[in-house]
Design goal:
- With 268 residues, the protein is of the alpha/beta class.
- The protein has a single domain, classed as Lambda Exonuclease, Chain A (Alpha-Beta Complex), CATH 3.90.320.
- It is 44% helix and 13% strand.
- It is built from 8 helices and 10 strands.
- Strands 4-7-8-9-10 form a 5-stranded mixed sheet. Strands 1-6-5 form a 3-stranded mixed sheet. Strands 2-3 form a two-stranded parallel ribbon.
- β8, α7 and β9 form a beta-alpha-beta unit.
- The longest helix has 25 residues.
Length: 268
């Protein structure tokens, strides 16, 4: 049985070998290969800040589902608590978010935009709940969708302009239908970009994706993942997962393959 997370589908085709090293480390190591070779991971602040904002948004959405009042201050508090934990576990900062105090300002700004511009337009029936569906062959597709409405899926993004998430959104749609939760007519990314605190205004965007196109991309990507994992299990050959040295993420900062016997393409 192969477990496929909806979130892994969005970046899989950029480099399946990197994706496999992240998602199927146990299968790879069982075959006698090493991962995590030269990579010395410290989680980036962009990811942790985005997660913290998600925590605050999910808190508000749960309140809304329960018919309770939503407090921006409470959203900020739960987000900051999540970010504090991330800091304790170790973070690398960048030119946009240079230190924890700056991150706290950015978290508050992002949540204010979400609270005022996006939350009022969402009528959630489910948020951040685990759902799964069995695929042909007994494999599983799983996810924790940000928000499901009666006729739509919402996913919150705080990073770069989000136009590469068709397969992930399509996976959410397929799961919503398979579990009889809703039949999405729209797949929406709510985008509030993390920006330097010198920028005075953050303009949110709600980007609507076509359901049919996204579901087709999801099915194609899922089929590729299953095929590649099965080929690797049968052959034990890493080339079952195509590698992309031209990827912007082909670096020890992002890929646990580099410098290992699982991917020798950038050996020094």
């Amino acid at each position: 049985m192969i477990n496929i997370r909806a979130s892994q589908t969005s970046g899989w085709n950029d480099c399946p070998r990197r994706g496999a090293a992240r998602a199927y480390k146990d299968i790879i190591e069982k075959a006698g290969f090493e991962v995590d070779g030269k990579a010395n991971y410290v989680r980036g602040v962009a990811s942790s800040l985005g997660t913290a904002v998600h925590v605050g948004a999910a808190h508000a959405l749960r309140k809304k589902i329960d018919g309770e009042s939503v407090s921006l201050d409470d959203m900020i508090d739960v987000s900051n608590a999540d970010f504090d934990e991330a800091v304790c576990n170790g973070l690398s900062f960048d030119s946009i978010t240079g230190k924890p105090s700056v991150a706290k300002i950015q978290i508050e700004r992002l949540l204010k935009v979400y609270f005022n511009a996006i939350l009022p337009n969402i009528n959630p029936i489910m948020t951040e709940q685990f759902i799964q569906a069995e695929l042909k062959g007994g494999h599983l597709l799983t996810a924790h969708p940000d928000v499901l409405e009666i006729n739509s899926v919402h996913d919150l993004k705080t990073g770069r302009e989000p136009y590469e998430y068709h397969a992930q959104l399509g996976s959410y749609s397929l799961l919503a239908k398979a579990n009889n939760i809703c039949i999405p007519e729209k797949l929406i990314i709510d985008w509030i970009q993390r920006t330097a605190i010198s920028k005075t205004y953050i303009e949110p965007k709600s980007i609507v994706f076509n359901v049919e196109i996204c579901e087709a991309e999801a099915k194609s990507t899922i089929k590729s993942i299953i095929s590649q994992v099965k080929e690797f299990q049968d052959t034990g050959d890493p080339v079952a997962f195509p590698a992309n040295c031209m990827s912007n993420l082909c670096s020890v900062n992002y890929c646990p393959c580099i410098g290992t016997d699982f991917c020798k393409l950038k050996e020094n």
